[in-house]
Amino acid sequence: MHCSHLFVPLQAKKGTTIQQRLMKKLRNTLGTLAAIVVAFAVADIGGAAYLLGYSLNPDPERTDTAQHLRQLYDLYPEAKEWMDSLQRVGALRDTFVTAANGERQHAYYISNGSQRTAVVLHGWRDNALKFLYLARLYDRLLGYNVVMPELHAHGLSNGETIQMGWLDRKDVRHWMELFRTDTMVVHGVSMGAATAMMLSGDEPPAGISDLRIVEDCGYTSVDDEFRGELHNQFGLPPFPLLPTASLLCRLLNGWDFEEASALRQVEKSQLPMLFIHGDSDTFVPTEMVYRLYDAKPGKKELWVTRGSGHAQSYLDHREEYVRHVADFLNRSFQ
After folding, report:
1. pTM of the predicted model, to two decimals?
2. For residue range 34-87, what is the model confidence (pLDDT) as tens digits?
3. Which of 97, 104, 155 lies closest to 129 in space, CA to CA?
4. Which residues of 38-73 are buried (b: 16+ CB within 10 A; e: fewer)?
5. Cβ 131 vs Cβ 35: under 8 Å
6. Count of alpha carbons within 13 Å of 203, Cβ hemisphere only?
7. Residues 6 or more apart in contact with residue 200 via CB below 8 angstroms
8. Are strands 145-150 and 210-216 parallel, antiparallel or unpaired?
9. C-alpha to C-alpha distance for 123 and 217, rounded to whole angstroms
């Protein structure tokens, strides 16, 4: 009895020691796991913040109009004589409006007294001046008035964060209402094209009897575009950076990457639409235009240009470009 009495406490004491060792190892393991999770979360948020800044910070030289005009004339020297003729008669006007949030938005306006108006939309981290070659197309060759808004955080418009077209579509609608004519076309390139397509799925402004869209190399959605660039520029998979960056964008800017979808807007659009894309585009991959074209119901046309990279269809195929746009605008879709 005496030996049995001594044996039981020894086992209990030994068991307690094992439990303590196990608990100590468990605490150490949990502490290590917690540190790894915290480090991963910090790296993910930091990487997502970098991605957001890389994608949405505006061009620091966006107000350097002299530099932008030089870039325009280098590529399109024929625009110089046309610009000089506009300035001689005061036909090119700077226009500012104050948005509901107090920000000033800027546009260039060219009027020739027509009842037809083109709204020309520039690309990502660009400005309206670089796209005056399209304004010349509409004014000189097609006889349209031209409105060239500078989107939020571009050119002379206020704003600290690029909106990738999603919220910009509301600003463009306001410009259309201010310069409304019976016939209008919204013609965008790259991000401007995505903006035009995003606009096309909303209820159009009243008082326009003929409204058409020309989209040149626009992306299907911000999520798709950033997913591709994350791979092409950084060699990274979309998860986890892209969802985190999208969430940060929602918290900071009021919209997220998946919401900003030209594809879903095009699916709802009843407006006639001309799709243009270079077959050598890798920045906005050419496959996107086929998805957009297939999603668009009703009145539509597609022109894929031979050998052209991103936003180079006009540069490489000027006469064909003018002809395709003119034919599209003159075609009856009744």
Report:
1. 0.90
2. 777 667 567 778 989 999 999 999 999 999 999 999 999 999 999 999 999 999
3. 155
4. eeeeeebbebbeebbeebbebbeebbeeeebbeebe
5. no
6. 3
7. 186, 213, 265, 266, 269, 271, 273
8. unpaired
9. 10
Dig out the tokens for 322 from the structure.
Answer: 């003018």
Three-class DSSP category at 182: coil
Contact 286, 279 (CB under 8 A): yes
> 92 CB contacts (<8 Å, ≥6 apart)?
83, 86, 108, 109, 110
What does the alpha-carbon distance between residue 81 and residue 333 come to, in Å, rounded to a whole number?
Answer: 36
What length does the chain have? 334
Reduced to 3 states (helix: H, G, I; strand: E, B; else coil), residue 72 is: helix
Rounded Cα gap, residues 157 and 127, in angstroms = 10
**Regarding beta strands 145-150 and 104-110, do their DSSP bridges make them parallel or antiparallel, or are they unpaired?**
antiparallel
Quick one: CA torsion of 14, 20, 22, 26, rounded to 10 degrees? 180
Distance of CA 214 to the CA centre of its chain: 16
Mean pLDDT rounded to a whole number for the chain = 92
